[in-house]
Amino acid sequence: MTSIRNFSANSVGLLFPSAQADASSLTSGVGQGISADTLSNAYGAQSGATATRKYAPTAPWSSSAQANPANDASRLSEAAKQVLKGGSSFINEDAALLDMPNASSDYKKLFALYNGLNTLSQLVDNAKAKSISTADKAQLQKSFRAGVAEVVNYVGSARFDRLRLALGEVNASARSTSASKVAPTSYASPALVASDPTQTLDALQGDVRFTMQVTRLGQVRNIDIDLSSLSPSDRTLPKFIAFVNDKLSAEGLVTRFETRRIAGQERTSTVGGKTISLGKTPDTWGLNLKLDSSEAVSLTPATTVPAIYLAQKAGNPDPDGKPATKDAVLSNQLLKFQTGADTLAPPSPTGTEAALASGQVWSKTIDPGLSGVRSMQTLPDGSVLVLSDVAGALGGQNIRGDRDVVLQKFDSAGKLLFSRDLGASDEASGLSMSVADDGRIAIAGKVKGQIIGAGTGPINEAKGTTTDSFVTVYNAAGEELWTQKRGSIGDDEATHLAWDSAGKLYVAGNSSGGRGGQAGLGLSDVYLETYAQGADNKVTYSAAAIAGTAGKDVARGLYIDGTDLYLASNDGGSGVVRRFDLSGGDPVLAATRDLGSLKGGDLTGIGMAGGRIVVAGNTSSGDLDAGSVTRAYSGGQDAFIARLSTSLNASGQDRLTFFGGQGDDTATGMAIANDRVFLTGTTKTDLPSLPAVGKVDGFLAQINPTNGDIEWSRRFSGKDGYVAPSAITVDAGGASVLDRLGLPTGAINAGDSLRLDAISSVRVGDQFQVRTRLNGPMTTLTVLEGDTLATFADRMKRVLGGQADVRVMAVDGGKRLQVRPLTTRNLVELVSGPDGKDALKALGLPEGVIRGTTVAKGGKLAPGDGGYPIYGLKMNGKINLDDTGEINHAAAELAGAITVLRSAYRELKDAATPGTVKAAQAAGGGTVPAYLKKQISNYQDALSKLTGSG
To answer: How far apart are CA 473 and CA 537, in angstroms?
Structure first.
């Protein structure tokens, strides 16, 4: 505690009238006492004297500090120029200025690191300049990467006396964002009836028959559900549930149906700027199928009709009419339609948005992280595979690079069953998908940068300057079997896939630099190649053919029929179909059919219907060489279907059907089922018997390619009057009465894979490092083939030597990896893996320190190990200046790290400053502390007694 002895002689003098006082004057002064103002002035003088003493060197960013790069823009600019020239390092302890003798070396290190981060921030500002040249940009990127690496190394190696520093975050625990699914115990339908669940249910009218197959303890029981014994008035939700449950109970099964109440939602309206409540919407009711873990349930309908699955974007692509602003707010949607309404009435769901068109079964807005759907395909079990591109997070989980490919599986009711992202280190796009007879799923596309663990050819681009083709094959559960990545000296992409009956995979694509050792023919050529997986799981690659002209040629479709392979392409603006003979093993060109100029149009796909080859596309010409015209060209751009002989020779049975109105109509997808061709696309004007709905509408059409009859068609629009269908697939028996009940065909809640590389963007071979003390030795953890969250957690626990609690926790409907110190005295640091192989980011675990805490004096939290405070810079060691997004991200990361260093300086300075000084500084010279007033009063009493005046 401060005593009167802390006052200097000068300060004491201020308490009395005269410094030259004799005994009488001193007595007089004492007799008069010390006024409050006198005491306050004296205390203020003492505070000023205290303030002149330094307990920490001046921070370089302070305006009172000597001019340096931290407080002088011109000096910072010069420092940036020097590192760009390679003339100096970013972090230089010798250059750190300290204006206090014998200051702790911690300040020198903090200031040196601060200057390094500040210089990096200047490089970021330089990179934002609009007039920067390509050469200067490249030098900036190079110097920035070097500077970041220098910071990472310095933080990892610098030793401080009174603080500890980490690159990442500082947390009490860490939990992965990647999660495996917890097996659901129920399946919920959408709303089926409003207000009163006992009213007659439309979905239960008519011919309602299906079979529930329940497998319990290895025994299969088939329960036939047939409502023909129930009168129309008895077909209510409660009576249906009782009817089915009685049958389940009679078989000794545990699975049960139950009612599901869906609470009404509050409705509001705005009138005159005020929000007015309109009350709640009525409650609605649906079905809930409650499952038991000992029973597996599958549903099979008695009667089916074709189902059409469609993917599209909805919303105005350019609301303000200025493409450069990129202000579109678009949503990705999946829709299911059914044909055959005369056989099976489509559902009329309650409590959902109105159908876009008659025959719609359901619509679903899918993950906003998806940037577009590329391909769709139905499976024998009634489910649907969807191949999309994704940018940013997917389902709350971060992807590895800037853009990736995702394969998703939905059941026939639209519920997501699994999601698999490729895990490209930079960016990738998915362009094609095909399913083999044995259930293997192949996807293909283009990629920049690396795909860890992929087999590669002699020419591959690892730096991400050009695109390479990739092919990935999964088993039926969506677990990756193999990936191949191949390129040329130019850009490449794999655009189409087809399996033959022997399980060999054929790939068609485009290349601007030759392929597989074969020279290119023009600006861009079509290539054909094969992959075969042997009994030893070894994948064999074979370059088969290069096709095209001297111009720009692109593949547009691939189809295999026995020993014939058909390749459709746009060769310099003309539609071309080639037939290759596969009977000898390697593809041999056997025939070519040129359909003629597409007049700015393109081909959409190829397949077989009625034993003949079918090609679909768009054209602005009615003069295609594709046989007799069954439906005439209407003008503008029309969709078309060409029906050709399997030999590709001109035949009297060849047919050409146009579909469109007088404006421009574009087919964007084609599917074939039951010898019928299904087209989807966009239109702005008239269509046969389909009036306009919005500004840019979508269409669906079922067409007989033999006679050109339009047997079923729909036109629809969406948000803001705009839709853009991108993919279509058809299940010949995919729609049934189960759709009216909101239930799927096939297995209910089929289990998902547990493999780590299936549930996240992690790839086998990815790594990160761990250690149990800062600056200590690190151990590398690598993702192995077949790893699950559980096996990886066990291995991580062993590596950490029992100093951490690593477990798999069930959180938010998923199982996640959680890491915590075993005790408050333990510490764990997680360090990112190598660029392109970082498992930490792929798992969604934060880089940094995980430590326990205790409550110190004053109620502040302190590290549980008894050491000095730990500061986490929260800085990603892989920030870069590669594009505008990365530049802005780097600026934010560096600003955050600089803020942390300033906080560390303030707290270091605060700890070095005596408590009495801080109390005096807090008082600011205006208020005398009570304890000091009391001491002065006692001093006056003593003086009075000394002089005899008391």
So the answer is: 12
Q: Tell me, what's the pLDDT at 394?
A: 80
Short-list 582, 570, 579, CA closest to 619: 570
Residue found under tokens 């030259």: 20
CB 284 within 8 Å of CB 262: yes
b (16+ CB within 10 A) / e for 359-373: bbbbbeebbebbbbb
- Percent of the chain past pLDDT 90, that is, above it, reads 66
CB-based contacts of 134, cutoff 8 Å, min separation 6: none
What is the overall mean pLDDT for the chain? 88
Which pLDDT value is given to residue 777? 92
The pair of structure tokens assigned to 577 is 């179909």
Give the 3-state DSSP-derived string for 173-215, with helices as H, strands as E and coil as C.
CEEEEEEEECCCCEEECCCCEECCCCCECHHHCCCCEEEEEEE
Identify the burial level of 415 via C-beta atoms within 10 angstroms of its C-beta, where 0-12 means exposed, 13-18 middle and 19 or more buried: middle
Q: Is 126 helix (H, G, I), strand (E, B) or coil?
A: helix
Q: Which two tokens stand for residue 522?
A: 């023009």
Most confident of 337-341, 363-367, 430-434, 911-915: 430-434
Amino acid at 405: V
Does position 44 have pLDDT exceeding 80, yes or no?
no
The structure tokens listed for 819 are 């890491």
Identify the band that residue 22 occupies on the pLDDT scale cut at 50, 70 and 90.
very low
CA distances from 395 to 147, 247, 419, 421 (A): 34, 38, 9, 11
Strands (E), 739-826: 746-747, 767-771, 779-782, 804-811, 814-821
Q: List pLDDT tens digits, range 157-187.
A: 999 999 999 999 999 999 998 888 887 889 9
Residue 705 corresponds to which tokens in the numbers above?
């390619």
- 125 — pLDDT class (breaks 50, 70, 90): very high
Q: What is the DSSP string of 697-748?
A: EEEEEEE-TTT--EEEEEEE--GGGBEEEEEEEEEEEEEEHHHHTT--SEES
Contacts of 777 (CB under 8 A, 6+ apart): 771
Helix (H, G, I), strand (E, B) or coil at 370: strand
* Complete DSSP assignment for 201-268: -GGGSS--EEEEEEEETTEEEEEEEEGGGS-GGG-BHHHHHHHHHHHHHHTT---EEEEEEE---EEE
Q: What is the pTM of this model?
A: 0.83
First to last CA, the chain: 28
pLDDT of 940 reads 61
**Which residues neighbour 636 within 8 Å (Cβ) at sequence distance 6 or greater?**
620, 660, 661, 662, 663, 664, 665, 685
Rounded distance between C-alpha atoms, residue 745 and residue 460, angstroms: 43
Local confidence band at 928 (pLDDT 50, 70, 90 cut-offs)? low
**Strand partners of residue 386:** 376, 408
Query: What pLDDT digit, counting tens, does each position of 247-262 carry?
Result: 999 999 999 999 999 9
Distance CA 350, CA 700 (A): 24
User: Could you give the angle at the alpha carbon of 276 between the alpha carbons of 274 and 280, nearest 5°?
Assistant: 155
The pLDDT, as a whole number, for residue 946 is 53
Query: What is the percent of the chain where pLDDT is above 70?
Result: 90
The CA angle 903-905-911, to the nearest 5 degrees, is 105
Whether pLDDT at 523 is above 90: no
Is the Cβ–Cβ distance between 42 and 927 less than 8 Å?
no
Spatial distance between the Cα atoms of 149 and 579, rounded to a whole number of angstroms = 54
- Locate tokens 């990936």: which residue? 483
